[in-house]
Amino acid sequence: MSTTTGVKTVTATAAAAAGPSVTWQMWVPCLAMAACSWLSFFHRTILAALAPTILNETGLTAQQFASINAYFFVAYTLGNPLWGSILDYVGLRIGMMLGVAIWTFASVSHGWMTAFIGFAMARALLGIGEGVTFPGGVRTAVESLPATRRARAMALSFSGGTLGGVAAPLIIVPLALQYGWRTAFVISGAFGVAWLIFWAAVSRPPFLPKTEQKTMKFSLPNFRERRVWALIFSYGLPAISAGPIVTLLSVYLSAGLGVSQRDLAYLLWMPALAWGVGYFFWGWIADRYAQDNKRPAGLFIILTAFALVLGATSGTRSIAITMAIMSWSTFIAGGFQMVALKAASYSFPREQAAMMTGIASGSFALVNYILLQTPVMGLGTLFNQHRYAEAWWIVALCPVLGTIVWLLLTKKAK
């Protein structure tokens, strides 16, 4: 135990030195957040996994489907920084329970919808609620573990999301085929209730400190600050491929390559799993090779070069090669996320960790919205017209733009 201004607090360093049992306890909150991100992506992915069936039954077009998902992303854009500020102000315990309760209700409500406007409203509410996920994950990592383990802690907190993307098609598609797609959405609510009970048990001592470090007043991101824009361009554009892949891959495989709804369950988990592996691999790389590097330009340039592979997607009709390219792309996207947050953690104070992540995740969602909804060359329009080559190249070139702008914004900080 260490004493600071008369108040006893358990520091991460002291906890690490206290023995195996305390060290294990340090990781429990991050495991809970891994379960939270699992739940987030599980609920988020259900609509995409069932897209062919839903589009066939409701008569929605590919462009309308893209627009429905765009409503999620615009709400998610607003929800991330908002929840980041809320968590920094009211704390993890209350903030996380409120956010997860909102999105659980929103996920279940998809099963009641019959037309475009209903799905759009449900998707927007889901986006608002799920905005709490990654700000909560990073805030938990900062509260629980020392800086030398922080990138790996963030990787653990984030990794559940990719596993949720793996699980959703494997669980939901068989349920939908057996009981109908509406019933599958209703069943999903039980997972949300289970997590709320779990979080109520672990979001207290000895897993998290009784008193959290909170901001003295509620504040929102200051977009006049250079560090905010550096974070936006290092995260929002470079890591973007995971968004369109999770959202539209089922449509591409079905309409572009002739894959059936049943067979999608055996394919859609691959990019999600690769995304999670990317978190851990590149989180380890960031901790090992960029531990004291506030501007890891070399890692960003390497990742940018690797990201260009996605542009070759439409050059093959092979499902195996297509899935390999998609999985590689999400693996690299996970790397961009870990390296960007590691670099940004040097610019933002500890008590603003949730807000920092809210800015990052919000920018990711905003870029997704722009890509889906842009007239003429938006992904929704291009997919509707089967112009897949142009669509995948647009996504593949986003990291180039993001990295160039980030290098310029951080040049003085080197």
Q: Which CATH-level-2 architecture?
A: Up-down Bundle
Q: CATH superfamily name?
A: MFS general substrate transporter like domains
In the CATH hierarchy, what is the class? Mainly Alpha
Order of helices and strands: EEHHHHHHHHHHHHHHHHHH
How much helix, percentage-wise, in residues?
over 70%
Describe this structure as you would to a colleague:
With 414 residues, this protein is mainly α. It has one domain: Growth Hormone, Chain: A (Up-down Bundle), CATH 1.20.1250.20. It is built from 18 helices and two strands. The chain has a two-stranded antiparallel ribbon. Strand 1 and strand 2 form a beta hairpin. Helix 10 packs antiparallel against helix 15, helix 10 packs across helix 16 and helix 10 runs antiparallel to helix 18. The longest helix is centred in the first third of the chain and has 30 residues.
Task: Give a summary of the structure in a few sentences.
The protein has 414 residues and is mainly α. The chain has helices at residues 12-17, 20-49, 51-58, 62-90, 92-109, 116-130, 133-144, 150-179, 181-202, 226-235, 242-257, 261-264, 269-289, 297-307, 319-344, 353-373, 379-384, 388-409; strands at residues 2-4, 7-9.
